[in-house]
Design goal:
Residues 251-261 have a biased composition (Low complexity). This protein is 27% helix and 28% strand. The protein has 502 residues and is of the alpha+beta class. A hairpin with a 4-residue loop joins strand 12 and strand 13 (146-150).
């Protein structure tokens, strides 16, 4: 029986890859899920596992060839033909004491588009510990989310390749699990050969992938300037991009003022301080917010909204709404609907700048900022413009719960076109939200507070909320920003306008 090995899904917007390295040759025995070859795209390096056990019968796409998604890479012969290589394994004296033990690599899981590295924050298991399939081995921190790494198989944790604090790329090996009948015996010697692998990484016979070599030639970067993170120290295209960025930033970094150093601290004060390293997520939040201020021509306009009608409507129907839809009726669905309505009239607030182009989005993927113990995250409600009130409330509730539990995936936080940030839940009366690049607009909600208002010549008490729209003045003019905020105000003060599309 012949099994085809095809190019796996490469990610959103990635249509082709280059075959960088074949780890097996025709005639070699392969185990199920054993790595056959490595592909390089313009974003990441992808390892292709064997879909079945057997013998590699034919390589269709040789090293250096460019292949599309689902293209045929090789053929594997299963069944009787796969049994022939068995004596070869028996010939290796080191394998004999291990019985039926098999070494299984624990690799960095998919981190999501545009995320190229992570930091190993916590190991839940130690070398020699027994692990069950899908049991959590360690936790990684990226600049956006925390990612838990489950055990791919049951066995014994034989080796930890990346200890806590190590920064690893998207294709790195984290650990080795020894599984099978001889796993407990094999665990101890498994770590011993590790030092022998070090010279191989620096060996002269290691050849980089063609995509990396081409990128180095185009960027004019010497191989010594690139730190290879691929298998056996091979350079990947991402490594070259990092080296090029570092080289470009080096001259510009020298005249730039460094972060303000701390002033002198007395010994008494220092003894009462606690120094904690910023998490990778917190570092990225800080960097992205500052980059947003430095890149966009950010401006904020303000207005206030009388929440009387929304609150009355919510109080009248919240019981029936929850009974029918199984979710509470909050204010966020009203604000989401009002923003969708306003974005249709002022589409530049829902657009972004790409070089010298303006990209208008004929859809609304609404980002809803949420505070978590780890930091601020912005899960995205996709196609919010096509959702009902109930669908929006369910989506926000589910995303908020996953955010607090640290369970959001990368895909759930990408692709937003506009953001709503509700500082009112923390008691904020007024603030100026910072843009979430590359978006051009973010709406800040605030605390609802009873205030005296002049209505038809009389002073009455009304529940009022300040609204703040921060926008990129490069693409949104003052008239558009004010119009957007006025339309949001009108829709909230008379929710019937949403039904009439006015």
């Amino acid at each position: 029986m012949t099994t085809e090995v095809r190019v796996p899904t490469l990610g959103e917007s990635v249509t082709e890859a280059t075959v960088a390295t074949w780890f097996k040759q025709p005639g070699d025995a392969v185990a199920a899920d054993e790595m056959l070859c490595e592909l390089e795209t313009d974003k990441v390096t992808v390892e292709v596992p064997s879909p079945a056990a057997g013998t590699l019968a034919e390589i269709v796409a040789a090293e250096g060839e460019t292949v599309g998604v689902d293209a045929l890479l090789a053929n594997i012969t299963e069944g009787g033909a796969a049994a022939a290589p068995a004596p070869a394994a028996a010939a290796a004296p080191a394998a004999a004491p291990a019985g039926d033990a098999q070494s299984i690599d624990v690799m960095v899981p998919s981190l999501g588009e545009s995320v190229s590295e992570a930091t190993v924050s916590t190991w839940f298991k130690q070398v020699g510990d027994t692990v069950a399939a899908d049991e959590m081995l360690c936790e990684l921190e990226t600049d956006k989310v925390s990612v838990e790494v489950p055990a791919p198989a049951a066995g014994v944790l034989a080796e930890i390749v990346a200890p806590e604090g190590t920064t690893v790329d998207a294709t790195a090996k984290l650990a080795v699990i020894s599984s099978g009948a001889g796993a407990a015996v094999a665990a101890a010697p498994a770590a011993a050969p590790a030092p022998a692998a070090a010279p191989a990484a620096g060996g002269k016979d290691i050849k980089d992938g063609p995509a990396a070599e081409k990128a180095m030639a185009e960027a004019g970067i010497a191989r010594d300037a690139v730190t290879g993170t691929g298998r056996d120290g091979r350079a990947t295209k991402a490594d070259v991009a990092r080296a090029a960025a570092a080289a470009a930033a080096a001259p510009a970094a020298s005249p730039a003022p460094a972060a303000m150093p701390r002033g002198p601290v007395s010994a008494d004060d220092a003894s009462r301080e606690e120094r904690v390293k910023m998490t990778k997520m917190r570092q990225t939040i800080a960097r992205r917010l500052k980059d947003s201020q430095n890149t966009a021509a950010m401006l904020t306009t303000y207005n206030e909204v009388d929440m009387t009608e929304v609150m009355a409507l919510r109080n009248q129907y919240k019981g029936d709404f929850e009974k029918k839809h199984g979710v509470r009726l909050g204010f966020m669905s009203f604000f989401t609907k009002a923003c969708v309505h306003a974005l249709k009239e002022v589409p530049e607030v829902n657009a972004e700048i790409d070089g010298t182009d303006i990209v208008y989005k004929n859809y609304v993927h609404m980002g809803v900022a949420a505070g978590t113990p780890q930091g601020l995250v912005v899960p995205v409600i996709r196609d919010a413009d096509a959702m009902s009130f109930a669908e929006i409330e369910k989506a926000i509730s589910e995303k908020g719960r996953r955010a607090r539990d640290g369970k959001l995936s990368m895909a759930e936080m990408q692709g937003g076109t506009f953001t709503i940030s509700n500082g009112g839940v923390y008691g904020s009366l007024m603030s100026s939200p910072i843009l979430n690049p590359p978006q051009s607009g973010i709406l800040g909600m605030h605390k609802i507070q009873d205030r005296p208002m002049a209505i038809n010549g009389q002073v009455v008490i009304r529940p009022m909320m300040y609204l703040a729209l921060s926008y990129d003045h490069r693409i949104v003019d003052g008239k558009g920003a004010v119009t957007f905020l006025v339309r949001v105000k009108e829709a909230l003060e008379d929710p019937r306008r949403l039904l009439m599309d006015l």
